[in-house]
Amino acid sequence: MSEPWTPRRPTALLVLADGTVIEGDGIGAEGSAVGEVCFNTSLTGYQEILTDPSYARQIVTFTFPHIGNVGANDEDVEDLVPENSVGAVGAVFRAEVSAPSNYRSAGGLDAWLKSRGVVAISGVDTRALTALIRENGMPNAVIAHAPDGVFDRDALLAQAREWSGLVGLDLAKDAASSRTEVWTEGPWNWDRGYGAHENPNYTIVAIDYGTKRNILRLMSGHGARVVIVPPDASAAEILAHKPDGIFLSNGPGDPAATARYAAPVIAELARTGTPIFGICLGHQLLALALGGRTMKMHQGHHGANHPVKDFTTGKVEIVSMNHGFAVDPASLPSTVEQTHVSLFDGTNCGLRVAGQPVFSVQHHPEASPGPQDSHYLFQRFFDLIDEHRATRSAA
Ligand SMILES: NC(=O)CC[C@H](N)C(=O)O
């Protein structure tokens, strides 16, 4: 007699704090991870997305159905300290992850996810999950992977419910490098790969709240020597490097929590008249330093296909986005001008300070992954630095 048929056990679960349990096939790290679930609409760049430190304590649902087919490589890692593996804690995929076309070792995406400690689930109706997030907002959840299919569902639900969520969490200190270092990779060059810039024209101090590598590459490509400092560096430490410009990086967590120590430093730096450029968390922190407010968004913006209008030129750019908090433009003082806006929902996407070389954007102009429409913002930063230098030498 043949064995009675037994249904296949799910080897992964996504347990939402509202009690919804989504079953699927586990891949990547075993065990469980708690975080906030968001959806990302990018068509490419899963490796850059999962290694973006801004995704710390988040579980990314990919709306693109087929993830993992080009494997993983060392060039597409975005976090500065890959050994720390700061980035998304979990990933949700529609299709089963098939054999990749490329990976240095056997095992493909599964091995790579494991090496970074990312717990992933495939075989999920990501369309339904995305619709649920659009309806109810980004839920707290636990993602769990057990190859033997044995789960304590009540304990996982309790863990999802007990987690206090991203609001109030400063994660920049976990995501950022804790020491000062000079970026030595230089810009990417198709002919010779990476290489330090031989004759830098500028010194940029990048305050690292969880920066992405491509931002540093692009600044380096503009001829800058980039000094990376920890998120809690003092204004005096930063100014000691004699920066031509100061960069405020992207990063994870609630900007209002990080602002407790970051905003006073940024406010002090802004008073020196040194050109400042902020991206994403850096934009939010600048707004807070200038006296503005930030708020949690309903479903956030995560993707590489978001239309943003630049009021200063009237142009629309298609941009890369990854944020769950936003600047309330009504909270900004009258000396601060709103320069960019999301054409999806009208939320603030940029600011500049009247009469000062200080500006920032909510989106990700380094676009890794994403379209490169907003690369001009790096040029804008270096143009401001040149203008600032010219007025100083004329004085
Ligand atoms: N990419 C980022 O810098 C994200 C900023 C912030 N953590 C947010 O979610 O809004």
Automatic annotation (TrEMBL):
<dbReference type="GO" id="GO:0004088">
    <property type="term" value="F:carbamoyl-phosphate synthase (glutamine-hydrolyzing) activity"/>
</dbReference>
<comment type="function">
    <text>Small subunit of the glutamine-dependent carbamoyl phosphate synthetase (CPSase). CPSase catalyzes the formation of carbamoyl phosphate from the ammonia moiety of glutamine, carbonate, and phosphate donated by ATP, constituting the first step of 2 biosynthetic pathways, one leading to arginine and/or urea and the other to pyrimidine nucleotides. The small subunit (glutamine amidotransferase) binds and cleaves glutamine to supply the large subunit with the substrate ammonia.</text>
</comment>
<dbReference type="Pfam" id="PF00988">
    <property type="entry name" value="CPSase_sm_chain"/>
</dbReference>
<dbReference type="GO" id="GO:0006541">
    <property type="term" value="P:glutamine metabolic process"/>
</dbReference>
<keyword id="KW-0067">ATP-binding</keyword>
<feature type="binding site">
    <location>
        <position position="54"/>
    </location>
    <ligand>
        <name>L-glutamine</name>
    </ligand>
</feature>
<dbReference type="GO" id="GO:0044205">
    <property type="term" value="P:'de novo' UMP biosynthetic process"/>
</dbReference>
<dbReference type="GO" id="GO:0006526">
    <property type="term" value="P:L-arginine biosynthetic process"/>
</dbReference>
<feature type="binding site">
    <location>
        <position position="325"/>
    </location>
    <ligand>
        <name>L-glutamine</name>
    </ligand>
</feature>
<dbReference type="InterPro" id="IPR006274">
    <property type="entry name" value="CarbamoylP_synth_ssu"/>
</dbReference>
<feature type="binding site">
    <location>
        <position position="284"/>
    </location>
    <ligand>
        <name>L-glutamine</name>
    </ligand>
</feature>
<keyword id="KW-0315">Glutamine amidotransferase</keyword>
<feature type="active site">
    <location>
        <position position="366"/>
    </location>
</feature>
<feature type="binding site">
    <location>
        <position position="324"/>
    </location>
    <ligand>
        <name>L-glutamine</name>
    </ligand>
</feature>
<feature type="domain" description="Carbamoyl-phosphate synthase small subunit N-terminal">
    <location>
        <begin position="10"/>
        <end position="144"/>
    </location>
</feature>
<keyword id="KW-0055">Arginine biosynthesis</keyword>
<dbReference type="InterPro" id="IPR050472">
    <property type="entry name" value="Anth_synth/Amidotransfase"/>
</dbReference>
<feature type="active site">
    <location>
        <position position="364"/>
    </location>
</feature>
<feature type="binding site">
    <location>
        <position position="281"/>
    </location>
    <ligand>
        <name>L-glutamine</name>
    </ligand>
</feature>
<keyword id="KW-0028">Amino-acid biosynthesis</keyword>
<dbReference type="InterPro" id="IPR017926">
    <property type="entry name" value="GATASE"/>
</dbReference>
<protein>
    <recommendedName>
        <fullName>Carbamoyl phosphate synthase small chain</fullName>
        <ecNumber>6.3.5.5</ecNumber>
    </recommendedName>
</protein>
<dbReference type="GO" id="GO:0005524">
    <property type="term" value="F:ATP binding"/>
</dbReference>
<dbReference type="InterPro" id="IPR029062">
    <property type="entry name" value="Class_I_gatase-like"/>
</dbReference>
<dbReference type="InterPro" id="IPR036480">
    <property type="entry name" value="CarbP_synth_ssu_N_sf"/>
</dbReference>
<keyword id="KW-0547">Nucleotide-binding</keyword>
<feature type="binding site">
    <location>
        <position position="253"/>
    </location>
    <ligand>
        <name>L-glutamine</name>
    </ligand>
</feature>
<keyword id="KW-0436">Ligase</keyword>
<feature type="region of interest" description="CPSase">
    <location>
        <begin position="1"/>
        <end position="202"/>
    </location>
</feature>
<dbReference type="InterPro" id="IPR002474">
    <property type="entry name" value="CarbamoylP_synth_ssu_N"/>
</dbReference>
<comment type="subunit">
    <text>Composed of two chains; the small (or glutamine) chain promotes the hydrolysis of glutamine to ammonia, which is used by the large (or ammonia) chain to synthesize carbamoyl phosphate. Tetramer of heterodimers (alpha,beta)4.</text>
</comment>
<feature type="active site" description="Nucleophile">
    <location>
        <position position="280"/>
    </location>
</feature>
<comment type="pathway">
    <text>Amino-acid biosynthesis; L-arginine biosynthesis; carbamoyl phosphate from bicarbonate: step 1/1.</text>
</comment>
<comment type="pathway">
    <text>Pyrimidine metabolism; UMP biosynthesis via de novo pathway; (S)-dihydroorotate from bicarbonate: step 1/3.</text>
</comment>
<dbReference type="Pfam" id="PF00117">
    <property type="entry name" value="GATase"/>
</dbReference>
<feature type="binding site">
    <location>
        <position position="251"/>
    </location>
    <ligand>
        <name>L-glutamine</name>
    </ligand>
</feature>
<dbReference type="InterPro" id="IPR035686">
    <property type="entry name" value="CPSase_GATase1"/>
</dbReference>
<dbReference type="GO" id="GO:0004359">
    <property type="term" value="F:glutaminase activity"/>
</dbReference>
<feature type="binding site">
    <location>
        <position position="322"/>
    </location>
    <ligand>
        <name>L-glutamine</name>
    </ligand>
</feature>
<keyword id="KW-0665">Pyrimidine biosynthesis</keyword>
<comment type="similarity">
    <text>Belongs to the CarA family.</text>
</comment>
<dbReference type="GO" id="GO:0006207">
    <property type="term" value="P:'de novo' pyrimidine nucleobase biosynthetic process"/>
</dbReference>
